[in-house]
Write a structure and sequence with these properties.
177 residues, single chain
Protein backbone atom coordinates (compact mmCIF):
# COMPACT_ATOMS: atom_id res chain seq x y z
CA UNK A 1 0.00 0.00 0.00
CA UNK A 2 2.82 2.43 0.84
CA UNK A 3 4.44 1.72 -2.55
CA UNK A 4 1.19 2.69 -4.31
CA UNK A 5 0.99 5.91 -2.27
CA UNK A 6 4.63 6.74 -3.03
CA UNK A 7 4.06 6.22 -6.78
CA UNK A 8 0.87 8.24 -6.62
CA UNK A 9 2.71 11.06 -4.81
CA UNK A 10 5.54 11.00 -7.37
CA UNK A 11 3.06 11.00 -10.26
CA UNK A 12 1.12 13.95 -8.86
CA UNK A 13 4.34 15.84 -8.15
CA UNK A 14 5.54 15.24 -11.73
CA UNK A 15 2.14 16.26 -13.11
CA UNK A 16 2.16 19.41 -10.98
CA UNK A 17 5.68 20.30 -12.12
CA UNK A 18 4.83 19.77 -15.80
CA UNK A 19 1.63 21.83 -15.46
CA UNK A 20 3.58 24.64 -13.80
CA UNK A 21 6.26 24.52 -16.53
CA UNK A 22 3.58 24.64 -19.22
CA UNK A 23 1.82 27.54 -17.49
CA UNK A 24 5.14 29.39 -17.16
CA UNK A 25 5.90 28.92 -20.87
CA UNK A 26 2.41 30.06 -21.87
CA UNK A 27 2.63 33.04 -19.50
CA UNK A 28 6.04 34.07 -20.86
CA UNK A 29 4.71 33.77 -24.40
CA UNK A 30 1.68 35.94 -23.62
CA UNK A 31 3.79 38.58 -21.85
CA UNK A 32 6.28 38.67 -24.74
CA UNK A 33 3.45 38.86 -27.28
CA UNK A 34 1.91 41.78 -25.37
CA UNK A 35 5.30 43.55 -25.21
CA UNK A 36 5.86 43.15 -28.93
CA UNK A 37 2.35 44.30 -29.84
CA UNK A 38 2.60 47.28 -27.47
CA UNK A 39 6.05 48.20 -28.82
CA UNK A 40 4.81 48.07 -32.41
CA UNK A 41 1.76 50.16 -31.47
CA UNK A 42 3.89 52.75 -29.64
CA UNK A 43 6.43 52.82 -32.47
CA UNK A 44 3.77 53.16 -35.15
CA UNK A 45 1.99 55.90 -33.18
CA UNK A 46 5.28 57.75 -32.74
CA UNK A 47 6.09 57.57 -36.45
CA UNK A 48 2.53 58.58 -37.36
CA UNK A 49 2.61 61.56 -34.98
CA UNK A 50 6.03 62.66 -36.24
CA UNK A 51 4.89 62.46 -39.86
CA UNK A 52 1.72 64.46 -39.11
CA UNK A 53 3.76 67.09 -37.26
CA UNK A 54 6.26 67.28 -40.13
CA UNK A 55 3.47 67.61 -42.72
CA UNK A 56 2.01 70.43 -40.61
CA UNK A 57 5.39 72.20 -40.65
CA UNK A 58 5.65 71.79 -44.41
CA UNK A 59 2.10 73.11 -44.85
CA UNK A 60 2.98 76.16 -42.75
CA UNK A 61 6.10 76.72 -44.79
CA UNK A 62 8.29 77.02 -41.71
CA UNK A 63 9.26 75.20 -38.54
CA UNK A 64 9.50 76.94 -35.22
CA UNK A 65 11.96 75.97 -32.52
CA UNK A 66 9.10 74.33 -30.62
CA UNK A 67 8.28 72.22 -33.69
CA UNK A 68 11.88 71.08 -33.99
CA UNK A 69 11.98 70.20 -30.31
CA UNK A 70 8.78 68.19 -30.80
CA UNK A 71 10.54 66.20 -33.53
CA UNK A 72 13.40 65.56 -31.09
CA UNK A 73 10.87 64.23 -28.57
CA UNK A 74 9.55 61.83 -31.21
CA UNK A 75 13.12 60.81 -32.02
CA UNK A 76 13.89 60.01 -28.36
CA UNK A 77 10.67 58.02 -27.98
CA UNK A 78 11.54 56.06 -31.11
CA UNK A 79 15.04 55.38 -29.81
CA UNK A 80 13.59 54.28 -26.48
CA UNK A 81 11.22 51.84 -28.22
CA UNK A 82 14.09 50.48 -30.32
CA UNK A 83 16.33 49.95 -27.32
CA UNK A 84 13.55 48.25 -25.37
CA UNK A 85 12.78 46.06 -28.38
CA UNK A 86 16.40 44.92 -28.64
CA UNK A 87 17.33 44.61 -24.96
CA UNK A 88 14.01 44.37 -23.03
CA UNK A 89 15.39 47.10 -20.76
CA UNK A 90 13.75 50.49 -20.47
CA UNK A 91 16.40 53.21 -20.58
CA UNK A 92 15.27 55.64 -17.88
CA UNK A 93 17.69 58.27 -19.15
CA UNK A 94 15.73 58.54 -22.39
CA UNK A 95 12.56 59.30 -20.43
CA UNK A 96 14.46 62.06 -18.66
CA UNK A 97 15.75 63.37 -22.00
CA UNK A 98 12.16 63.49 -23.27
CA UNK A 99 11.12 65.39 -20.14
CA UNK A 100 14.02 67.86 -20.52
CA UNK A 101 13.17 68.43 -24.18
CA UNK A 102 9.47 68.88 -23.36
CA UNK A 103 10.32 71.40 -20.65
CA UNK A 104 12.64 73.18 -23.08
CA UNK A 105 9.76 73.36 -25.54
CA UNK A 106 7.51 74.82 -22.82
CA UNK A 107 10.22 77.33 -21.93
CA UNK A 108 10.62 78.42 -25.56
CA UNK A 109 6.86 78.88 -25.91
CA UNK A 110 6.64 80.82 -22.63
CA UNK A 111 9.42 83.20 -23.52
CA UNK A 112 8.66 83.47 -27.24
CA UNK A 113 4.92 83.93 -27.18
CA UNK A 114 4.23 85.65 -23.91
CA UNK A 115 7.58 87.26 -23.14
CA UNK A 116 7.27 86.29 -19.51
CA UNK A 117 10.15 86.81 -17.14
CA UNK A 118 8.68 85.64 -13.87
CA UNK A 119 8.58 82.84 -11.40
CA UNK A 120 7.22 80.27 -13.86
CA UNK A 121 10.37 80.56 -16.00
CA UNK A 122 12.50 79.95 -12.90
CA UNK A 123 10.41 76.89 -12.04
CA UNK A 124 10.78 75.39 -15.53
CA UNK A 125 14.52 76.07 -15.67
CA UNK A 126 14.90 74.64 -12.16
CA UNK A 127 13.09 71.50 -13.28
CA UNK A 128 15.41 71.21 -16.28
CA UNK A 129 18.42 71.63 -13.99
CA UNK A 130 17.07 68.99 -11.59
CA UNK A 131 16.47 66.52 -14.44
CA UNK A 132 19.95 67.20 -15.81
CA UNK A 133 21.37 66.42 -12.39
CA UNK A 134 19.35 63.19 -12.35
CA UNK A 135 20.94 62.16 -15.67
CA UNK A 136 24.37 62.89 -14.21
CA UNK A 137 23.62 60.78 -11.14
CA UNK A 138 22.34 57.91 -13.30
CA UNK A 139 25.42 58.01 -15.54
CA UNK A 140 27.82 58.11 -12.62
CA UNK A 141 25.87 55.38 -10.85
CA UNK A 142 25.93 53.10 -13.89
CA UNK A 143 29.67 53.74 -14.23
CA UNK A 144 30.51 53.08 -10.58
CA UNK A 145 27.99 50.24 -10.10
CA UNK A 146 27.46 48.50 -13.45
CA UNK A 147 24.48 46.17 -13.70
CA UNK A 148 24.93 42.43 -13.74
CA UNK A 149 23.71 42.26 -17.33
CA UNK A 150 25.29 40.41 -20.22
CA UNK A 151 29.02 40.82 -20.63
CA UNK A 152 28.55 42.56 -23.97
CA UNK A 153 26.70 45.40 -22.20
CA UNK A 154 29.50 46.19 -19.77
CA UNK A 155 32.77 45.21 -21.43
CA UNK A 156 34.34 46.45 -24.62
CA UNK A 157 36.91 44.00 -25.93
CA UNK A 158 39.98 45.48 -27.56
CA UNK A 159 40.83 44.29 -31.03
CA UNK A 160 44.04 42.25 -31.24
CA UNK A 161 45.26 44.75 -33.82
CA UNK A 162 44.94 47.69 -31.44
CA UNK A 163 46.76 48.18 -28.21
CA UNK A 164 44.23 50.08 -26.12
CA UNK A 165 44.63 50.28 -22.38
CA UNK A 166 42.13 49.21 -19.74
CA UNK A 167 41.49 52.88 -18.95
CA UNK A 168 40.47 53.56 -22.58
CA UNK A 169 38.09 50.56 -22.58
CA UNK A 170 36.55 51.71 -19.29
CA UNK A 171 36.14 55.23 -20.67
CA UNK A 172 34.35 53.89 -23.78
CA UNK A 173 31.97 51.86 -21.58
CA UNK A 174 31.17 55.00 -19.54
CA UNK A 175 30.55 57.06 -22.68
CA UNK A 176 28.08 54.44 -23.99
CA UNK A 177 26.09 54.39 -20.74
Amino acid sequence: MSEVMRRFGTATTDLHRSMRDAADRIGEFLVDAFHFLALFAIGATTVWSAVVAFIGMVAQGRASLGDILLLFIYLEIGAMVGIYFKTTRLPVRYLIYVAITALGRVLVEMVGAEHRTGMDILIVTGAILLLSFAVLVLRLGSYKFPSEGPKADTITHASPLTNSSKKDRTRRVFLRA
